[in-house]
Amino acid sequence: MQIRNNIRRLLQYRMCLIRFRELGFERVYSYSLGREAGVSPEQIRKDFSRFGIKGNKRGGYLISELLDSLNYIFGKNELQDVILIGVGNIGMALARYNCGFFKRRKYIVAGFDIDPSKIRKINEIPVLPMEVMPRFVKENGITVGIMAVPAVSAQEVCNSLVNAGIKGIMNFAPIVLKAPKHVVIENINLCNVLESVIYCANYARDDLGVLEC
Length: 213
Known about the structure:
Layout: H1 2-22, E1 27-28, H2 30-37, H3 41-50, E2 61-62, H4 63-73, E3 80-85, H5 89-96, H6 98-103, E4 106-113, E5 121-122, E6 125-129, H7 133-140, E7 144-147, H8 151-164, E8 168-171, E9 184-187, H9 190-202
Parallel strand pairs: 3-4, 3-7, 4-6, 7-8, 8-9
Antiparallel strand pairs: 1-2, 5-6
């Protein structure tokens, strides 16, 4: 969990750095980046140090060098291919957003579904039968998959992905998946996120010590 939080913060830093660059800044200090990202300068220096990124106490960080380092960490110097399992409503939306993924050097190269009526192309993405997924993964060296399938079939699909060699799964199914420790799973439950935001907006009372969201 600690490394995931570290990665999320690095992604937030990169977004802030891109904004600074667009505003014409060439250098940034940990306190100014921290103020923009909502974390302490000490946390920023600690996160950067974990990946060998060092700045200058007087000169701060060169934004271009920071972005180069972060892009290298996240593999943005080369295109990262992923697959999509399930082309229902969420899967279709993800497929149509593929141009947005491409801008960040991620690309859905194929979709898979058990429904024969969905075997076609969506925005140039081929949708293939589920039974050919293992061979496709091995032949194309795919390591990451997106799951947008119903909860009832999610664990079975997860098992198939793991057996095919997938090491990272972004899961939109409303279920906690079981997988070997070497497989990274990120659960995206939109209803839970919305309920959390609603609760924090309407019921959390930091001044009363009830909850700090």
